[in-house]
Amino acid sequence: MDGTSNHNSNSNPAHIILIPFMAQGHMIPMVDMASLLASSGAIVTFITTPVNAARIRPIIDRIENSHHPVRFVQLPFPSADAGLPAGCENIDLISSPDLFKSFMEALSLFGEQVKLYLTTRNPTAVPADCIIFDNMNFWVGAVAESLGIPHITFYGPSCFYILCAHLLKKHQVLKSIDDDYELFKVPEFPEPVEVMKAHVKRWVDRQGWEKLSEEFYNTEKSACGVVMNTFEELEMLGLDKFRKEIGKKVWPIGPVSLANKDLDSKAMRGKASSIDTGLLLSWLDSKAPNSVLFVSFGSLSCNSISQLVQIGQGLEYASSSQLSFLWVVKEADNSEEVENWLSEFEERTKGRGMVIRGWAPQVMILDHVAVGGFMTHCGWNSTMEAIAAGVVMATWPRFADQFVNERLVVDVLRIGVAVGAKVPIFFVDKMSEEALVKGEEVRKVVEKVMTGGEKGEERRKRAKALGEKARKAMEEGGSSIENLKRIIQSAEGENKHLE
């Protein structure tokens, strides 16, 4: 779809290319970013693949019907050339750990498709002024530089995590630590928190990934600036330190989930819901304010049947009969054993609990007045959605940035309670027994988050206050909206170079 935004009086608006990483948690914030940039005056081209476009088809339709100048381009993904099964175009479709590296290598081949599109097949005939790319797309730097297009990194995780990773690499800290579970402080970090080696290792630094690692860091260095799904008021100290460290523009533009203002857009964010939203809202409407715990662990993390049983016990035996729960169990899709246990569990907790099998409209749920707590894997999208909704969290990280995000939520912002998970579980790995969290621990955390006495009330007040700041950041004149405008102004600059 061509055209210009109604909000833009510039006859020559900036044309910004968005290239998300092919994972649901990375696609979602970039779709929101496309809407935000287009409504702020840019022309946007969003590049993805057929399988990923099909997943977000309702969102594509909604954006196209809004007449914002966003073009969705589908380019073929070279699954077969990289030794992947046909249609393996998203990391949640990777069936074994061995295929993860093959998938990452396939991204370089996809980069050739993107370069071809930008040079010979771009139907807009509008030159690209800049590319905003997910930092996992390590190949973008070489493509953008070969075409002379400025490129900006989009970091999906928190600034808290990105700064932590930057400082650890700068000081080579991990080389001197042998114990994966030894607590240590990060040099120069502006917050007094401690982390563990097992929780801060980056996927790109593993053995055998040296070539990909070099490309990854080269692309980070060559980027003109950084965009983040956070806001100035949330991570002020970290953002200030990170800007000084990298010497580049850093634009926080979040929470991007707040781009979805009406009920329909909240309900379809990500992909189509697995439950009728009318039925879901009716159930939530029947519950008292702050009485429902929402339990969801993101699009990638999976629980073993043993862990599901322990979670179920914790939810079932939480002491207050006034507490209800809404639990997303995507594992039911692939296991008869899980489905059989789940059916019995639902019968025992009828009226008090609801189970969603598959994808849930998370933003819509968190925004409901009945929801008073969120048990989460601490993926940054989920964390930001909870912050935007002013909801306290029970934190249960699994891998990547999630353990560091937990430290931000629990130790710095003080709006969460840790379940106590310690052992990382990569999304393609089976959950080990040592990673199991017992039902009694789950029960204790549920009660602390949902009631928790005076400390619980203080947590809830802090969460509500942060929610207010998040909403103000995304209003006209707010810090995030102003940063969006600065990105576009930079792309529209006299020499089309970012300032």
What does this structure look like?
- This protein has 499 residues and is of the alpha/beta class.
- The protein folds into 2 domains: 15-254 and 474-491, 3-Layer(aba) Sandwich (Rossmann fold), CATH 3.40.50.2000; 272-469, Glycogen Phosphorylase B (Rossmann fold, 3-Layer(aba) Sandwich).
- Helices cover 43% and strands 13% of the residues.
- Strands 3-2-1-4-5-8-9 form a 7-stranded parallel β-sheet, sandwiched between helices. Strands 12-11-10-13-14-15 form a 6-stranded parallel β-sheet, with helices on both faces. A two-stranded antiparallel sheet has the order 6-7.
- Helix 4 packs parallel to helix 5 (140-147), helix 6 crosses helix 9 (236-246) and helix 15 (380-389) crosses helix 18 (453-473).
- It is globular, with a radius of gyration of 22 Å.
- The two termini are 29 Å apart.
- Residues 1-8 and 494-499 have low confidence and may be disordered.
Task: Give the class from helix and strand content and strand pairing.
Answer: alpha/beta
Rg of Cα set: 22 Å
User: Going by CATH, what is the homologous superfamily of the largest domain?
Assistant: Glycogen Phosphorylase B
CATH architecture of the largest domain: 3-Layer(aba) Sandwich
- Tally of domains: 2
Q: In one word, what is the shape?
A: globular
Proportion of strand residues: 5-15%
CATH fold call of the largest domain? Rossmann fold
Mean pLDDT: 89
Largest pleated sheet:
7 strands, parallel
Numbering strands along the chain, what is their spatial order in the largest sheet?
3-2-1-4-5-8-9
